[in-house]
Amino acid sequence: MHRSFFAGLALSLLAAAAPAMAQGHAHSHGQLSLDVAVDAQDITVRLDAPLHDLVGFERAPRSVAERGRVTALLEQLKLADKLFVLDPAGGCKLGDVQIASAVLGLGSAPAPAKDEAAPEHADLDMTVTFACDKAAAARFIDVKLFDAFKGVRSVDAQVATAKGQSRVSLRRAASRLPLDGSAQ
Ligand SMILES: [Zn+2]
Q1: Structural domain total, the chain
Q2: Cβ 56 vs Cβ 62: under 8 Å
Q3: Which domain holds residue 56?
Q4: Ligand 1 centroid – CA 48 distance (Å)
Q5: 141 in Cβ contact with 177 (< 8 Å)
Q6: N or C: lower Cβ tally within 10 Å for the chain?
Q7: Which of 176, 167, 98, 166 is nearest to 144 (CA)?
């Protein structure tokens, strides 16, 4: 009897916690995350960034100046090969750049309804595909996010290659991401 009571309590706590986690998942400003996948012919870079670190706010722009910042950001992100500078050995060229941010009305995620309580945080996701002659020959990516966005303090990167997976935390002073698993 006690057992089932506690089991029921745990379940209802889980149910209560789930929506809060789904809405604007907790991030820390200054901390970005990067997922890199190296395939035979391409390298895919997926960035997840707090919107705060890119434009200084985490909601829809409210003024001409704020709209200007968003426009400038999108222009900057489209030049993704300036933010992620790949080892020339891979012979990689910038391909598709996809940007998603619900509060900016970008991508497939629906914008939050007006009468909903505004989530505390909002992210921007970007997926960049590079088409490469020989992706496996690329041994690093120089991550320029620290130069491009002054608020960025760390970039937690995961790399998946044919050889395995590695994880490394990049800093301003150590912003070269190894692709050959040597970080592990
Ligand atoms: Zn935030």
Answers
A1: 1
A2: no
A3: 25-178
A4: 12
A5: yes
A6: N
A7: 176
Residue 19 inside a domain? The answer is no
**Phi, psi torsion values for 177, nearest 5 degrees:** -95, 115
Place of tokens 């994880």: 167
Q: Rounded to the nearest whole angstrom, what is the distance from the C-alpha of residue 110 to the centroid of ligand 1?
A: 18
Domain contains 128? yes
∠ Cα 145 151 157 (to 5°): 45
Contact in structure between 128 and 45 (CB atoms under 8 Å)? yes
Query: What pTM, to 2 d.p., does this model score?
Result: 0.81
Q: What is the pLDDT of residues 96-131, one digit of tens each?
A: 999 999 999 999 766 666 555 656 799 999 999 999
Ligand 1 centre to CA of 151 (Å) is 12
The DSSP output letter for 65 is: H
Q: Residue 158: inside a domain, yes or no?
A: yes
CA distances from 149 to 67, 88, 90, 118 (A): 17, 24, 26, 25
In a domain, 13, yes or no: no
Q: Which two tokens stand for residue 166?
A: 């590695």
